Amino acid sequence: MATGHTDPHRRDRILAATLDLIAEEGVAGVSHRKIAARAQVPLGSMTYHFTGIDEVLLEAFTGHADHVVTVFERYLADATTPDQAREAVTDLIHTLSDAPGRDLILTQELYTLAARHEPYRALCRRWMRRSRDLLERHFPPPTARRLDAFIEGLTLHRALDDDPPDRDLTREAVLRLTALP
Fold first, then answer.
1. What pTM was estimated for this model as a whole?
2. How far from chain centre, in Å, is Cα 39?
3. What mean pLDDT value characterizes the chain?
4. Is 4 left (phi over 0), alpha (psi -120 to 50) or beta?
5. Domains, the chain, with CATH or none
6. Which UniProt keywords apply (predicted)?
7. End-to-end CA distance of the chain
């Protein structure tokens, strides 16, 4: 592993370590010292690359939001008809809720910060806008807004429920939300 300024991936390792720690211990369990140890970088690298823990957290969560938007893009990209888009949304919900809980935990930790701190709320607004933009390629804006909220809610419910709704129920709900009046 390269050291000092010759290590071009140090900043990325710090951000990845931050997300790993948040997933394991929550935001409250994160510190400069723990992040540096997890990233295997000198503690001084934290202040060299970031002005403080808030900047580290905000950038790490920005990366997480970018990741989830990429998942949205991957599922919606090939849909060319409304029915294909509906099926893509159904697949997306089941992929997000069936996946390991890391993304769900990170998202909930971000929402907790957003409830109290404007920079994280602004990040969430940008993330929601990007998700809706992808959905608006297939559905009218009001439908995309409802569908985005539904994706979020059902993903959470499916992930936490002992008997989660099956694919048929999801498909039917997506059809009802996206059907023209």
1. 0.89
2. 21
3. 92
4. left
5. 1-50 (1.10.10.60), 52-178 (1.10.357.10)
6. DNA-binding, Transcription, Transcription regulation
7. 59
